[in-house]
Amino acid sequence: xxxxxxxxxxxxxxxxxxxxxxxxxxxxxxxxxxxxxxxxxxxxxxxxxxxxxxxxxxxxxxxxxxxxxxxxxxxxxxxxxxxxxxxxxxxxxxxxxxxxxxxxxxxxxxxxxxxxxxxxxxxxxxxxxxxxxxxxxxxxxxxxxxxxxxxxxxxxxxxxxxxxxxxxxxxxxxxxxxxxxxxxxxxxxxxxxxxxxxxxxxxxxxxxxxxxxxxxxxxxxxxxxxxxxxxxxxxxxxxxxxxxxxxxxxxxxxxxxxxxxxxxxxxxxxxxxxxxxxxxxxxxxxxxxxxxxxxxxxxxxxxxxxxxxxxxxxxxxxxxx
Length: 321
Ligand SMILES: [Zn+2]
Known about the structure:
Helix content is 24%, strand content 24%. The chain has helices spanning 109-117, 123-132, 134-144, 219-228, 245-248, 264-271, 274-279, 295-300, 308-320, and strands spanning 3-8, 34-36, 45-47, 53-54, 59-61, 67-71, 76-80, 88-96, 147-148, 154-159, 165-173, 179-184, 212-216, 233-236, 255-259, 283-286.
């Protein structure tokens, strides 16, 4: 059996579904900020409220027209039945043999080097430079191998503890350093590129007995926090569901503090991981910034979905006013 990659034909459906609850930020769509794609079920679309794109998994098709997706947990292709989509076209005829075990692949380090040297640098780095100065910016570029791709996306390279380059996440930021909905993953899991924690390579440099490794949700938060609080090592798990057992294994024997973003969901997902982390021999604690508040209360306090950088900024503003 050989599988072909299916490309989605993405077009926005101009008719909004005002009754849905957005899959990204869990809001009512009364204001019509969530737009669906044509020919797809309601949970796939673009959200003007939080800026996230919700898309189905990459699909593949065999000779008989049966469809498959890659299961990240089982690390194999599995058949899917109702995919909820109609507008699909096969554009890439590069057949994959799913019976063969997928070998772990690494990215050529010269690509990383090239991206670090790429000019002009991306909007996020320009923002960091403007806000925190050249010296601190150069430090984080070197510490995290921050790069720019050909169309101005910020490249967050996943470098593991053996200094091997595993994967990359590419995000486009606007000039004020805010992320846009444009996110790409240029190296796919099913092609053999497996993610690790962003900043995993830093485990190699710290003192295992003394240092504290702080885990946050987004790569940008890790970078900004490492500028503001350079006495800690900052790693990112890359998304609300990004802290997988595969990624956390390397933390065995390290002292870890996890700071989830501020929502009931983000905090409870991480709290549920603690028993597993203990089993794996990781000394982990959570800094729960929501402190028992509900999402409703967080919204009233203007803290909802905030991350550590937002909290620090808010405190700075309070001092200045
Ligand atoms: Zn949203």
